[in-house]
From TrEMBL, chain A:
The gene is LOC104721255. The lineage of its organism: Eukaryota, Viridiplantae, Streptophyta, Embryophyta, Tracheophyta. Residues 1-158 form the Isopropylmalate dehydrogenase-like domain. Belongs to the isocitrate and isopropylmalate dehydrogenases family. This is Isocitrate dehydrogenase [NAD] regulatory subunit 1, mitochondrial. It holds the Pfam family Iso_dh. It comes from the Eukaryota. InterPro entries: IsoPropMal-DH-like_dom.
From TrEMBL, chain B:
Keywords: Magnesium, Metal-binding, NAD, Oxidoreductase, Transit peptide. SMART domains: Iso_dh (SM01329). This is Isocitrate dehydrogenase [NAD] catalytic subunit 5, mitochondrial isoform X1. It comes from the Eukaryota. PROSITE patterns: IDH_IMDH (PS00470). InterPro entries: IsoCit/isopropylmalate_DH_CS (IPR019818), Isocitrate_DH_NAD (IPR004434), IsoPropMal-DH-like_dom (IPR024084). Transmembrane segments: none annotated.
């Protein structure tokens, strides 16, 4: 889509010029998805138009462990709203709520992002470290990560790990 | 003429095309079978070896097919050095007529020459032959380890319209509009092919991939057409999956999918994503289906000019595409033979080309496959 995506690229290039210390490159979205699947470690920050961003974010979320662990934030000129990074697909299903199996990690990490945005880096770090420790330990995980813990158990574990 | 009618005419072409009903599409399949019926008379197929590594891998295919006793005679065509005014491209009218006549072809990688005043080669093929569906089977190759072992799916991508209709314009400086066109005719056509493919290949489920929650009219129309066709195949499970969910599910658990049918852009992205799951474009076969039973199988990787002529290229993609072509021609026995030979050779691991982590040359790899036949 030469004109539309062309305009997007032109704009990115203009901004890239102002940050010479940051490497900038461009990749076609289908090749990008293929690379993500094969070698995701080659990517750092990815900026995309709307639809591609949806797809790429979900692909990346899948690689990273699913909607249950990926944090996200929406940023505007005056406000910022933080929420899970990838579409849940289970939104609005009461059954999931009752089962108490939802993974709180994504939202916890999103709130850490919010803390960072509010310039509270030490709080953000503490929260993130606790969450990561709980996951790394592997003892307390919800169903989507292959465990049997409930939402509350994971939250309690994170609180216990906070220092 | 109204603008909508003009648009439709530009996309569909001046030929009058009828919306395929179940009878006529299965009719197309049986007429293809009847036309190619006799296994004693060789079938003529057009071969485009292509550029770069194309000629070498095309040689591989010819060798394997001859060893397997496949009754095919190749009519070779090359990309020209001058623009043919009848096609506005480096692909000559004769080449295209050859495919139209033979109804079946195999294409290697073609490097589109840089410059203006001509259409890209792929675009020329697609438009002139009315190739409306791009079919890519993706399955884990035993012996070639990736992060995913249980992939076995087929992506069927609508290839004529959608976001790639080429209709973009600048509204004012800094504001560009791009039109996404979805027609009932094209959607029905690709859905029909998807279900027919599922039925003839014994697949159980067809998933339509869409973003109809946002693009309610375009993807909505696509889904409507898929649903209509689904009703005619009650034995096949039909489901609809939102594209972002689909990406995530593919990456987390690709075994969930069987046959996927999608409009153009999603198909482009998903088919490449799936190729990445099983090892990349170097191993991916593909077949383009056109009206009147035309099938052009092709290797979708690039022409790799850096290794051209060095006997290092991996012919797997072109070979597997050739197998797809054989299945289309209902030469299933030989297709299965060659397919097994390729799988076994790669699984064995003794003869592998450099891109698969081995050190065999193209000719050694080809010979190993022939020995496995």
């Amino acid at each position: 889509m030469k004109l539309a995506d062309g305009l997007f690229l032109e704009s990115c290039r203009e901004v890239a010029k102002k940050y010479p210390s940051i490497t900038y490159n461009e990749i076609i979205v289908d090749n990008c998805c293929m690379q993500l699947v094969a070698k995701p470690e080659q990517f750092d920050v990815m900026v995309t138009p709307n639809l591609y961003g949806n797809l790429v974010a979900n692909t990346a979320a899948g690689i990273a462990g699913g909607t249950g662990v990926m944090p996200g934030g929406n940023v505007g000129a005056d406000h910022a709203v933080f929420e899970q990074g990838a579409s849940a697909g289970n939104v609005g299903k009461d059954k999931i709520v009752l089962e108490n199996k939802a993974n709180p990690v994504a939202l916890l990490l999103s709130s850490a992002m919010m803390l960072r945005h509010l310039q509270f880096p030490s709080f953000a770090d503490r929260l993130e470290t606790a969450v990561k420790k709980v996951i790394a330990e592997g003892k307390c995980r919800t169903k989507d990560l292959g465990g049997t813990s409930t939402t509350q158990q994971v939250v309690d574990a994170v609180i216990a790990k906070l220092d | 003429m109204t603008m909508a009618a003009n648009l439709a005419r530009r996309l569909i072409g001046n030929r009058s095309t009828q919306i395929l009903g179940a009878d006529s599409s299965s009719g197309a399949a049986t007429s293809v079978a009847r036309a190619f019926c006799s296994s004693s008379t060789p079938i003529t197929a057009t071969l485009f070896p292509g550029d770069g590594i194309g000629p070498e891998i095309a040689e591989s295919v010819k060798k394997v097919f001859t060893t397997a006793g496949v009754p095919i005679e190749w009519e070779e065509h090359y990309v020209g050095t001058e623009i043919d005014p009848r096609t506005q491209s480096f692909l000559t009218w004769d080449s295209l007529e050859s495919v139209r006549r033979n109804k079946v072809g195999l294409k290697g990688p073609m490097a589109t020459p840089i410059g203006k005043g001509h259409r890209s080669l792929n675009l020329t093929l697609r438009k002139e032959l009315n190739l409306y569906a791009n079919v890519r089977p993706c399955y884990s190759l035993p012996g070639y380890k990736t992060r995913y072992d249980d992939v076995d799916l087929i992506t069927i991508r609508e290839n004529t319209e959608g976001e790639y209709s080429g209709l973009e314009h600048q509204v004012v400086r800094g504001v560009v509009e791009s039109l996404k066109i979805i027609t009932r005719q094209a959607s029905l056509r690709v859905a029909e092919y998807a279900f027919l493919y599922a039925k003839t290949h014994g697949r159980e489920r067809v998933s339509a991939i869409h973003k109809a929650n946002i693009m309610q009219k375009t993807d909505g129309l696509f889904l409507k057409c898929c649903r209509e066709v689904a009703e005619k195949y009650p034995e096949i499970t039909y489901e609809e999956v939102v594209i972002d969910n689909c990406c995530m599910m593919l990456v987390k658990n690709p075994a969930l999918f069987d046959v996927l049918v999608m409009p153009n852009l999603y198909g482009d992205i998903i088919s490449d994503l799936c190729a990445g799951l099983v090892g990349g474009l170097g191993l991916t076969p593909s077949c383009n289906i056109g009206e009147d039973g035309v099938a052009l199988a092709e290797a979708v990787h690039g022409s790799a000019p850096d290794i051209a002529g060095k006997n290092l290229a991996n012919p797997t993609a072109l070979l597997l595409s050739g197998v797809m072509m054989l299945r289309h021609l209902k030469l299933n026995e030989q297709a299965e033979q060659i397919h097994s030979a390729i799988i076994n050779t790669i699984a064995e691991g003794k003869y592998r080309t450099a891109d698969l982590g081995g050190s065999s040359t193209t000719t050694e790899f080809t010979k190993a496959i022939c020995d496995h036949l």
